[in-house]
Amino acid sequence: MAKTVKQAYRCAECGWQTSKWVGRCGECQAWGTVDVAGAPKPARVVTAGPVTAPARPIGEVDVKAAQTTATGLDELDRVLGGGLVPGAVMLLAGEPGIGKSTLLLEVAALHAARGPVLYVTGEESAEQVRLRADRVDAIAPKLYIAAETDLAAVLGQVDSVAPELLVVDSIQTIGSAEIDGAPGGVSQVREVAANLIRVAKARGITTVVVGHVTKDGSIAGPRVLEHLVDVVLYFDGDRHSRLRMIRAVKNRYGPTDELGCFDLSESGIVGLPDPSGLFLTRQEKPAPGTCVTVTLEGRRPLVAEVQSLVAPSPLANPRRMTSGLDSSRVAMMLAVLQRRCGIKLHDRDVYTATVGGVRLSEPSVDLAVALAVTGAANDLALPPDMVAFGEVGLAGEVRGVQAAKRRMSEASRLGYRRAIVPAGSLDPAKRATGTIVTDEGMQVMETDAVWSALDIAFASRGPGA
User: Fold this and answer.
1) What domain notes does the record hold (predicted)?
2) In which order are the strands placed within the sheet that holds 9-11?
């Protein structure tokens, strides 16, 4: 008898094959990309054809057409590297209700003062967008709104309006009858994005596409979408806070290590050029269990406060709760404090949190967490004018961090006069610990071990502190 040939399945993203259907690719971990594999096609030989434009020496290429145009929001321009580039395609992703549509509506209204802007909404009606525009004062004569979910209709709107800026909110709602699958599927998203990119490059239209995110925070849809676009932006923040932050994880026209901060309210969205004050409590009397640190978001130093509460636990397994901090690094710090510094925490509940909804994931926050937990465990308060930063290792050593001088300058600007930093922060060739006074009038105390930092911090409180 002839053998029955098993049906093969192939991932549309990476080409991984399997003998049975699965919902998630075993190679690239993409969801919904595994489908029935067709018969292998022989490679086609493509002959040379006419060129679109003759090749030129790179020095003769005119760069004026690729100059950036400011959006009117300084914080967004900081992240983009100056502003919008003609023909660039940007992908803005974020959780539902975080403020993506409000931000883009504000950008569209500001850009409409210079040229026509087309805002295509596939999730709301034109009337709903108008209500939001009235609330945030984003009414402009050259701002056009179209509620479309068909790709052909969207391209028709582009032909009729001829915009300088195109906003599509969102790409998961746009589909085409000529492509198999429902809108939001892998094939639909890929083809819709390819057509929008083709039109944007051919006509020099700056295009911003809104993308959904999955429950783990990654952009929904095929991974190739992030490779096709020029800029990938993440818009995030705490739902219970007005602070919103935007980061660029891919940028062909600017840096990818910048951070933009915004204040989202009912009247619109406003940039925050100096957001450090949002992450501090500014209490008149020092409280045990608090420590101010300086973290680096991209190239911007941010002064933030770490708080801790240590209480006796009635449970066999004490609680370890974190908010705004990396739980694994906090657990490591608790182990270091107990093993290297002799601070007993095995029978106590430990709570750690940040102020203002900011999330601190940089390792330089380790030293501030150690000081805050130690102060809470021993009911000791740090001086109100002190900051601390540094990475702590498992052996209890305090490691250096980048841009230490920039961090101290930011702390000095906000009125802090004492700092505990890793040894060698001011002079990398000098690893000795001690007290150094900087040019800004800040008293800098260098340390190379966490137990030394605890002695310096709580011995420097002074009488009555």
Assistant:
1) The middle region has homology to RecA with ATPase motifs including the RadA KNRFG motif, while the C-terminus is homologous to Lon protease.
2) 17-18, 9-11, 34-36
